[in-house]
Amino acid sequence: MSKKTGVAIFGLGRAGSIHIMNCIKNFRIQVVWLIDVDLDHCKEIINKYCLDGTRCCTPNETQLVFDDENVSAVLICSPTFTHENLVKTALENGKAVFCEKPISKSLQATKECYDLSEKSKLPLFCSFNRRFDPSISSIQEQIRQDNLGKLYTIRTCSRDCPLPSMDYLKSSGGFFHDCAVHDIDMICWILNEYPKSVFAVATAHDSRIREMNDWDTAVITLKFDSGVIGVIEISRFSEFGYDQRLEIHGKTGMLTSNFQFQDSTESFTKSGKLSTPLKWSFNSRYAESYVNALETFIDAVRTGKTLEICKRSTVRVSEIADACEESIKLSQLVEIHYSED
Known about the structure:
single chain; 341 residues; alpha/beta; Rossmann fold; 2 domains; seven-stranded mixed beta sheet; six-stranded parallel beta sheet; NAD(P)-bd_dom_sf; Gfo/Idh/MocA-like_OxRdtase_N; GFO_IDH_MocA-like_dom; oxidoreductase; nucleotide binding
């Protein structure tokens, strides 16, 4: 396939602003449509980046997009509540789908979306982008090569920065389905297994989040059949930057991925050592992973390559997040019975 892949991007908010820039820079992609409630913002992007031939419309006019034969794939970055309908409509109209998580708030609807993808023979890519971060994928490869021998523990720390808007949090799907799923997916992918039980504790330090019946700080423990114990610490707060760490302890040693600084400059004086601040948010910390995830999706669209993030993995991560919420409400360990074998 020598022709560029025509894409339509739904939503130009937190994630959409990342994907539009990566699409513009990608030599294999032609941005055909931008869809957002703010048409002026769409037009600003089209003018600023000289996107000749790119059109824009509101979510009420999406059939124009689905009827366009120049569109081979869609990127769904709109609010969570819109995902399921857009995924199904896109697949029904012959478009491959790249979707920010979650595909749907409903497990049954998520399964239906994947079943439709299989029936349509079109890729459905749920973007758990941490898998595509170079340091994390390097650790996963070393674990696959058994470099640490028997594994004992795996730990992650994910502290968000800055705190998202309350409007975003209200429609995010909740703390565990918005934040924890990334760590859950990463751990399960690295270990190549899923936990048999979870125990979680959580609280809400921010009264506004508490009023939503949600949480902003939590610790999760996961027990695997192999004997590995997983620990996830997540928080909506980190005043010093985007704090992302991973540690795996095994018989022959340890692997780590630490937080990243804005650059490598260090200042040494008699008062001590100073470094630049941490990368501020997810868009800078995981910038390369977003590029790599998009490339993986485009490869699948253009060559038919099988996607590693599949129905089974996506559904199971959601089931684990559900089990975490249940554990908090019951104040007890929860055994997980997976629906997808």
